[in-house]
Amino acid sequence: MSDSTSSNSNSSDLERCLELLRPGTSDESKFIGLTLMSDLLQISQDQGTMTRFFDNMDFPFLDRMMQIEESSVPKEAGVNATTIRSIAIDIMTCFSTHWELLVRKEFKDRVPTMLSLLSASDATENSKKILKIMVRISAYPQVSMILTNPGYQSSIVAYICDTFGSKGESHEDAVMVFKRTFLIIQEGFKQNPKVVLQITKDFLPTIMTRISKPFSVLSETYKPEILQMLTESVAYLPEQYMQQHVKDHAVETRNWVRNLKSGLIQLLSTRQAPTTRDDCFKLIGLLLQRLGADWIFPEIPTTDAILAETRTKKKSSPATLVHSMESLSLTDAEIDKKFAALVVHLACVEARVLMDELADELSGSAATTKAGDEARQAKIRKEQVLPLVYEILEVSIGYLVLVSENDELLERGLFDATALLKVQESLQAAFSAVLDYLLDLQTSKDGTPEKLVSNMNYLASMRILSVWLTEDGSLHAQAVALFPTLEEVVRLCKSKSSHKSLVRLLQPILDRFQELSLD
């Protein structure tokens, strides 16, 4: 057959197919049309052909075909329900390859139907194809905001949770869509905050509640994977956006915050992979930035009120902290206490570990041995974990000062006098390690003002140490040795236009150290 004859045949088949699919024809005709369309799409998927199919498609019928059951398939159709559903999904897949069709209302209106078909036990490749479509949707600003629909995203979260065991390409696509949705919110919020807040008003409370529930369950095997998803996703949300949602959804926020604290307590109380522990601190730090100090140190009822509430619950002797959470049905106040105590103590421990790692790099005992994943993780710990640990320490200092100056707050606070003393001792040990690192750094080959001025670890460590020295005098004598080098660094910043922006950060620190040197 010549190319001309083949082209005429394809054109004739296309016209016949369009006639069969147009609205108003019988379902039997449309069944035949779908089958013929599937065959034609194997030959050509050019934009012109796809647009003609799209313009003539009876989309409500296509909706029904994506969900059809065997009992609804006419005997004369010649195919079973599974085949028809697959053909319908294949057609949507073909449409999705052309962005001009992907952004049209008729396509967007099919999204809930497609997402309703996601299934971890899908024996066909329909779920895989649907998630590829969602990935394409997430890539186009003209249409991607529909993924913030909490119902749509709940279907994706459910699929993710159901496929942790098998994982694979479809699972990774679902996780990608989940994380991209938070990025979509970030980008949209930059351009039009009010509109995005209105469009996504139910997104955060619904999705954080949905994803935090399995995270809080003691028997959840994939808690570290959920933690990683949360950490990478929450990082995209602007602080103002999250604060507004928390304000508008106080009840839902309390619920998912409780769930997150419960899950974090379980992870931090047990041995975990280093990357999981890092993710714990990253999530705690990110939420501290977005929710404020109340995330770690919330106001709680009086001690009498707590006791009155817990007396009504049956108690047994907990074997471990984690076991106690499940068997005693801890109140919100009890979870707050355990969470705050654990976070402060482990943040202090983590600060000391990080200082040891930085000291090893100074001496050259670790830098040359790290490679590949280990080197990447070390870089993440310095650039991401350390700043967040410092933020946790700073808010802990603020809480300690607040409680020490307010007897009433001490009586109804998270810690009694003995616990507060332990917190202070943990902080002293942490800042002693920070001080030792800084003393080692300024006497090393990297301790010149020219190098220190661009050393983020030095700048951040000097700042947090100065905050502690303002409130605690136990390290004053040793810290005075840092003053001359800091003075040189500030002098250098003032003399170089490229570093003048740092003067605003360093001058208050220098003033604090100058006061120490005069004492």
From TrEMBL:
It comes from the Eukaryota. InterPro entries: ARM-type_fold (IPR016024), Neurochondrin (IPR008709). Coiled coil: none annotated. This is Neurochondrin-like protein. It comes from Linnemannia schmuckeri.
